[in-house]
Amino acid sequence: MTIVKIALEIVVIITSILLTLLILMHKGKGGGLSDMFGSGIGSNAGTSGVAEKNLNRLTIIVALIWVAIIIALDLISKYKLA
């Protein structure tokens, strides 16, 4: 394994953990697993509209980075570039 492939694998692990945490931070829409831990909290305790939009943007950016690295790792493995 080359250093590039190892570095990409480390970045995939980090972005996977970050993506999981970002998804868990989203406000639940009711009735699902997201209400399991915070069902007693009132609706005023949620994030504001701007914070929710920023969280959505950050989640999408991290997800796109994750997908791009997964594709890059696949191409590296397929064509034995590194």
Automatic annotation (TrEMBL):
UniProt-listed NCBIfam families: secG
Membrane topology per record: Multi-pass membrane protein
Annotated function: Involved in protein export. Participates in an early event of protein translocation.
Subcellular location: Cell membrane; Membrane
Keyword Metal-binding found: no
UniProt keyword terms in alphabetical order: Cell membrane, Membrane, Protein transport, Translocation, Transmembrane, Transmembrane helix, Transport
GO biological process, alphabetically ordered: protein secretion
MF terms in GO: protein-transporting ATPase activity
Regions that span the bilayer: 7-26, 58-76
Family: Belongs to the SecG family.
GO CC terms of this entry: plasma membrane
Principal location class: membrane
Entries under InterPro entries matching the protein: SecG
Record's protein name: Protein-export membrane protein SecG
